[in-house]
Design brief:
Helices cover 32% and strands 19% of the residues. It has 317 residues and is of the alpha+beta class. A three-stranded antiparallel beta sheet has the order 1-5-6, covered by helices on one side. The two termini are 41 Å apart. Bound molecules: 2-amino-4-trifluoromethylsulfanyl-butyric acid (MF3) and cobalt (II) ion (CO) (2 copies). The site of 2-amino-4-trifluoromethylsulfanyl-butyric acid has 12 residues, from loops.
Length: 317
C-alpha cells in the first residue's frame, strides 16, 4: 500500500466525508493509473515510491524501521556549511600535494585550517585514529595514517577530510596525482571518479540503495577494475557514521528506498587489480592484497524532491 493511501485511511477516524474518500482511494492504485494526489500525471511518474506526501510519518518510519535520521532544512544548512569547509580543505591540500611532501605535513595543514575555522576534525581520536585526516597512497585503499611517508613523482594520494562545524559532519575525499601520473595511476583515478559520478546519477527519490551500488560496480567491472567490499558509504550529518550503509556493489531494485532528507556519502574504493584487502600492523591502513593501485572519491549527498544535491560539491568532470 502506498503511503498516500495509508494517510487517507488515517483520515477515516475524523469525518464522514473523508470516509467516502477513504473507500475510493483504498483501492490499489496501478502504476499507470492517474496519481491519487490529483496531479494529472500517471502514478508511476508522480508519487509512486516517493512517499514524500507525509514528511512527518516518513521521518518516524525511517527512524523506526532503519535507524535513519532524515534531515530537515536547518540540518541541511548546517551540513552544507560543514561541506563548504570540507571543500576548502581539499582545495588547500591540492595546492600542497607534490613530490617531497611528507603526509604528516598534510595532516598539519588540515588540522590547523579546520581549527582556525572554528571546527573540529572528526577523524582525530575517532575509535583511536591518531590523526586529523586520512592520507592513502597508491596501494593504500583508505584510512592511511599521516606520518613520515614522503610523496614521490607518479604517486596517487587520496585525502579524506571530515570537519565537524556547529555539530554537523560533512565527509569528502579526492585522489590527487603527485606530479605526472603513469598510465595505471591515470586509469584508476579516472575510473574511481567516474564510479562516484555513476553512483550519484541514480541518487533520487524512489530509487533504492542497491541501484547506487549496481551502477558503481557495473562501471568499475566494465573497465576491468574491482570494487572494495569491506568499506561502504554511510549516513552522515549528526554523527560521523550513521545508518544506512551504502555498498558500492549490489543489485538494481534492492535495498531501502531513497527519500528526500536522506544524507549519506557515496565513496567507492576502486582497485586496479583484485578487490581483496588486508589491514596493516597499525590496525588502520587498508591496502590491496595484490599490491595494485586503489583510488577513491567521496561526496556527501542529500536526497531532494527532484533528485540530489551534493553538500560537498566539487567538479567530477
Ligand atoms: N572518512 C572516512 C569515511 O569516509 C572514515 C575515516 S575513519 C578514521 O568514512 F578514523 F579513519 F578517520
Ligand atoms: Co565517509
Ligand atoms: Co571520508
Amino acid at each position: 500500500m502506498s503511503l498516500r493511501t495509508k494517510r487517507f485511511a488515517q483520515a477515516e477516524e475524523t469525518g464522514v466525508e473523508k470516509q467516502v474518500l477513504v473507500e475510493e482511494r483504498a483501492i490499489k492504485v496501478g502504476r499507470n493509473d492517474p496519481c491519487p494526489c490529483g496531479s494529472g500525471l500517471k502514478y508511476k511518474k508522480c508519487c509512486l515510491g516517493k512517499e514524500s506526501s507525509d514528511p512527518e510519518g516518513l521521518k518516524e518510519k525511517y527512524l523506526r524501521d532503519y535507524g535513519i535520521r532524515l534531515k530537515n532544512s536547518k540540518d541541511v544548512k548546517g551540513i552544507r556549511e560543514a561541506g563548504r569547509l570540507a571543500i576548502e580543505l581539499l582545495d588547500l591540500v591540492e595546492k600542497k600535494v607534490g613530490p617531497g611532501v611528507m603526509t604528516e605535513e598534510i595532516n598539519r595543514m588540515v588540522h590547523e585550517y579546520t581549527v582556525r575555522r572554528g571546527a573540529r576534525p572528526a577523524p582525530l581520536n575517532y575509535r583511536g585514529f591518531p590523526k586529523s585526516v586520512c592520507v592513502s597512497v597508491n596501494e593504500e585503499i583508505c584510512h592511511g595514517i599521516p606520518g613520515k611517508r614522503m610523496l614521490k613523482e607518479g604517486d596517487i594520494v587520496n585525502i579524506d577530510v571530515t570537519p565537524v562545524l556547529d555539530g554537523y559532519y560533512a565527509d569528502a575525499s579526492k585522489t590527487f596525482f603527485v606530479g605526472e601520473p603513469g598510465p595505471e595511476g591515470a586509469k584508476i583515478v579516472e575510473v574511481a571518479r567516474e564510479c562516484l559520478k555513476a553512483g550519484m546519477s541514480l541518487a533520487r527519490p524512489g530509487n533504492q540503495i542497491g541501484d547506487i551500488g549496481w551502477a558503481i560496480q557495473t562501471h568499475a567491472e566494465a573497465k576491468g577494475c574491482s570494487v572494495v567490499r569491506e568499506f561502504v558509504g554511510h549516513g552522515v550529518g549528526f554523527e560521523f557514521h550513521e545508518p544506512p550503509q551504502i555498498p558500492h556493489y549490489g543489485q538494481k531494485g534492492k535495498g531501502i528506498r531513497l527519500v528526500p532528507g536522506m544524507v549519506f556519502t557515496i565513496e567507492p574504493m576502486i582497485n586496479l587489480g583484485e578487490k581483496d584487502l588486508r589491514i596493516l600492523e597499525d590496525n588502520w591502513t587498508a591496502v590491496t592484497r595484490d599490491g595494485s593501485l586503489s583510488a577513491q572519491f567521496e561526496q556527501t549527498i542529500l536526497i531532494t524532491e527532484e533528485g540530489f544535491e551534493s553538500l560537498t560539491p566539487y567538479d567530477l568532470g
